[in-house]
User: Fold these one by one.
Assistant:
Number 1:
Amino acid sequence: MLNDPLFILASLSALVVLAILMLGIGSFGKGGEFNRRHANRIMRYRIAAQAVAVVLIVTFAYFHGGR
């Protein structure tokens, strides 16, 4: 599985979602001007990245589900 490019891509996309989520939670917890200006944008990026990650994971499961 680790040699499969689709698995690597799906894993990296999940890590990107995690990084964006942690950035959003961190800025929300800290508050301040950065949070006021960028909170909605960060969460929109997370939703888009999460949609890509779900599509990649489902695609991987579809192609490798019979094994």
Number 2:
Amino acid sequence: MIIREAITSDYAQLRQIYLHSRQESFHWANADEMTLEDFDRDTSEEEILVAESGDQILGFASLYVPDRFVHNLFVHPQAAGKGVGKQLLQQSIYRLGTPVTLKCVSDNHKALSFYKKQGWNAVVEEGEPEARYWVLVYE
């Protein structure tokens, strides 16, 4: 597996990963309202790293570099549990420097557990009652 910057020809696979991962795991959101185009809107002005094996993209991270912020981290459901997220996160930290932050929906217990195992600290919970999220920091 290699981690590299995304290129335009990756976007079709990235859109699919983003859509299907959210439809499967974002139980708090309406899956019927999610579209392939959400990826383009939600990663605008961000640097995108991809994890790739052969010609298959296994996952991606999108980084908002000015704020040292990991905006998105998604792994293809078939590649889950194989170290893809960990490697993307490590490369994101390397690219951004520390401290680096991210936000994670409070109801996404699986992701919160993953980040904490990777050494991230939950600093504060924010947002409206129906849309709570944790701000996590890696220093």
Number 3:
Amino acid sequence: MTFINKLLRDEQGATAIEYGLIAALIAVAAIVGMQALGTQLGNTFNGVSTTLENNQAQNG
């Protein structure tokens, strides 16, 4: 009976789960942010490439 009471009062498992959920949320936020940044960076490089190609065609 005392073993069951100890298990019911033990909060270490709940704390570990909370930390795991926080870590997962941070990971998801980081992935979303990196994807958005990657898209913007890709668009910037495509714009630079297009500008260079147009300048080369005009001057070449």
Number 4:
Amino acid sequence: MIQAGIIGGGGYTAGELIRILTYHPEVELAFVHSKSQAGNPIHSIHTDLLGEVNLDFTDTVDFGVDVIFLCMGHGQSKTFLESHEIPEELVVIDLSHDYRLNPDFIYGLPEMNREEIRKSRRIANCGCFATAIQLGLLPLAKAGLLQDEVHVTAITGSTGAGQSPGATTHFSWRNNNISVYKAFKHQHLAEILRSLTQLQPDFTDKVNFIPVRGDFARGIFASIYTDCALSGSELQALYEEYYQDAPFTIVTEQNPNVKQVVNTNKCIVHVEEHDGKAFIISTIDNLLKGASGQAVENMNLVFGFPQTAGLQLKASVF
């Protein structure tokens, strides 16, 4: 049994992480830090945890635990770590983008860096868009088959924008609406490109990424295509072989949909061949496989627990 703490406990990813760790068979959740909510019951913010979690938020941090998860806003993790003396043996898993390109942190994508994660004490969790897109492309990159530009359109639910309300996140704007943002310039492109070139060093083409705001709460659905000479059956075999030891990434011959992954830690990948192009669909829950669930996968790997521990699938959402 290990002890865990959460820094920045008020947001969506922290709420999911609290739920997962509360029921994890190998973890005791020692504290959830939040300056703004200190002294208040956790269920006063994360209301779905009423009757399940009896902890209060705290404004103190205990570095005597085994692992801390940083669930603060982008930019705040770096400030926190630089302003505190962090024990070397303490495992730090950061869910922000602050350390994803930092060589002192292992990039927390188990489907690519499983063995490196096992040996690390500092892990930078992947971005949600980056997770879905990379899981759609890793098998091609590993086989050296990315030979041209990659085209991606991916739609995300409103929870991907965080809990603080904004002009493009409140219900009356988002409902029955759709829009593009940060076309070709999304911040997750940097980590995507680094992973692809890690597996295929000669890849120098562009990844053209169009992010789309969807009118639903959670989930990411990425559609991807690029030139490829493999047949449909060869692509299917390539993807199945690459993910044969990945417990949460499922390669299917069926056309997937977002409802299959919402409230689970699954990524479902589908691949087809069309006139010399590989067409890939990759779909995840942005708060689980794209954030808190993947963070727990990384923790499990570090401490030698089964990768699936605490991440059993939830009931059907239909």
